[in-house]
Write a structure and sequence with these properties.
mainly alpha, 434 Repressor (Amino-terminal Domain)
Amino acid sequence: MDILINLGKNIRKYRKLKGYTQEKLAEKTNLSNSYISDIECGKINVPTLTLYEISLALDIDIHKLFLPYK
């Protein structure tokens, strides 16, 4: 599986486990809703700092975003 697709699926999984909508995650990370959507769809290469901010907003260790999606 492509790493960007895997990353996006993991972000979506942890976002939903947290009970957040894309809008809520966007608000917590100061990103746009469409940017969150593009990340979750694996459409863009995400900067490390942005991944760090997403992991903080989701209250997870950043490495979990890169584990194989299950």
